Amino acid sequence: LDATARFSLLVSHPGHSDAVTVVLHLAPELRDGTRGTFLPVATVAVPAEGGRVEAYISGHDILLDAADADNADLPALCFAKEFDLQAEIVHRVAREVMSEKKVKFDYQVGTMIEVPRGALTADEIAAGAEFFSFGTNDLTQTALGISRDDMGSFLMPYTEAEIFKKNPFATLDATGVGQLMEIAVAKGRRTRPDIKLGICGEHGGDPDSVKFCHKLGLAYVSCSPYRVPVARLAAAQAAIEEKRAAAKAAPAKKAGRK
C-alpha cells in the first residue's frame, strides 16, 4: 500500500452477534529493506453481519502484520519462482514478528490461481504453496479474454446467440475455466497430496458453481457475506446428491460381481 492509501477489507467474525471494532497494526517496510515498528494505524468497525469495510492510512509502503491472519494468500501468481520470492518475505516477516512479540503462531502461505499459466503449472507452484484459492472472477477474465467491467455491452447478444448459456461471471464456465481448475487440482495434488483447495469469488455464491467445485474436491468457499447462506445450501445439496449417487451405485456393483 502506497503512502496515503485507501484500502478495503472483506471481513466476517463468526460466533459474534454484535459489531466489533478491530485495530489494524501495520509496520512500514522502508526503502532500504528494513522494517519499522508496528503501529496502530486504523480502527475499523466491523458490523455484525460482516461485509466490506474501508480504512484509510498514511505513511511509508507497508505490509500487513503476518500475525493478523492464519493464511497469507499471494494473488495472481503464474511462476513458481514468483511465489517463492514472495513467500520468503512472508516467512521473514513472520519470524520477525514472533521474535519481536515473543509469541508463536501457525500460518500457511498459499496462492490465488487467477491466470491460466498458474493453473497449468500448478504442480510447480504447489512445491511451495500450501493451499490454492481459485480466484474465479479473474480466472474467468483471463481465460475468456473478457473484461467483467466491459461485458455489459455484448452480454445480451452473446446470450441470445447461445454463445453464453449463462453469464460466465455469475455461473462458472465449467467447460473452459472449469477445465483449468481440474488441471490445477490434479497437478497440485500430485505435488502436494494434502494441499488445501478452495474458491474465492462471486461464483462461490452460485449453486451450480458450488456443486461443480464440490465435485472437484474443493473444501471451502470465500464470497460476499450475503451469498454465504446460498453457498452453504448448495454445498449441502452437493454432498447429499453425492451420497445418493454412491448408494445407488453400490447395488449395481454387487450385482456385477455376482
Name a few traits of the molecule.
single chain, 258 residues, alpha/beta, five-stranded parallel β-sheet, three-stranded antiparallel β-sheet, 10 strands
Describe the structure.
The structure is a single chain. This protein has eight helices and ten strands. It is α/β, with parallel strands linked by helices and about 260 residues long. The strands form three sheets. A five-stranded parallel beta sheet has the order 6-7-8-9-10. α7 (about 205-215) crosses α8 (about 230-255). The chain is globular.
SSE topology sketch:
Layout: E1 6-11, E2 20-28, E3 39-46, E4 51-56, E5 62-64, E6 71-74, H1 80-101, E7 108-113, H2 116-120, H3 122-125, E8 131-135, H4 136-144, H5 155-160, H6 177-191, E9 196-200, H7 207-216, E10 220-222, H8 228-257
Parallel strand pairs: 6-7, 7-8, 8-9, 9-10
Antiparallel strand pairs: 1-4, 2-3, 2-5
Order of helices and strands: EEEEEEHEHHEHHHEHEH
- Strand portion: 15-25%
- What do the pLDDT scores average to? 78
Largest sheet: 5 strands, parallel
Helix count from the secondary structure assignment: 8
Oligomer category:
single chain
Helical amount: 25-40%
Report the C-alpha radius of gyration, rounded: 21 Å
Give the N-terminus to C-terminus distance in angstroms: 66 Å
DSSP E strands, number = 10
Strand sequence of the main sheet, in spatial order? 6-7-8-9-10
